[in-house]
Amino acid sequence: MTAPRKGITRQEAVQRVLLGIADDQQGYTALLALLEEQFQATLHHQSAQLTALADRVIAAVEQLDARRRQRVSLVTALLGPKAEMAQLFALLQDDARSKAETDWAALEQMVLECKRLNSRNSELLTEQYSIMQRVLHGEEDTYAPG
């Protein structure tokens, strides 16, 4: 195995990946809270709050994606283009491997929960928009022959 880039050792690359996972756990915790705030603002038709939250959600997702790209780059450099996190974890000693696997599983669950909440929020916004369109413009088939 080779070092991922000049100036960084294999050990440093592994450490960066593990620190990135910990940072992502904090990032996804914050994103979960933002998505819940977004849901509440949607329920209460707080459009100014929704606009501010959208900007914060986008910023949070961009940070998470940047760390994901760095993680993929480091793992690929260490283990090749078809590498998986389990292969990286296999390089660790027992206690560190167990913690990394647990942290990774927790992170995967957080990602799934964020996706679920995002879908929920999107469905609510879409439903509210549809209702508003019907209120403003009437039903499409109101005057259709029966």
Write a concise synopsis of the structure shown:
The protein has helices at 10-43, 47-79, 85-90, 94-137. It has 146 residues and is mainly α. 12% of the residues are buried.
Note down, in words, how this protein is organized:
It contains four helices and no strands. It has 146 residues and is mostly helical. α1 (10-43) runs antiparallel to α2 and α1 (10-43) runs parallel beside α4 (94-137). The protein starts with 9 loop residues before the first helix and ends in a 9-residue tail after the last helix. The mean pLDDT is 91.
Overall radius of gyration: 22 Å
Number of strands: 0
* Global geometry: elongated
Cα(first) to Cα(last) distance is 73 Å
Question: How big a fraction of the residues is strand?
Answer: under 5%
Low-confidence stretches: none
Q: What can be said about the biggest beta sheet?
A: none
Order of helices and strands: HHHH
In DSSP terms (H or I, runs of 4 or more residues), the helix count works out at 4
Estimate the helix proportion, in percent.
Answer: over 70%
Mean pLDDT: 91
Secondary structural class: mainly alpha
Topology:
Blueprint: H1 10-43, H2 47-79, H3 85-90, H4 94-137
Provide key terms for this protein.
146 residues; mainly alpha; 4 helices; 80% helix
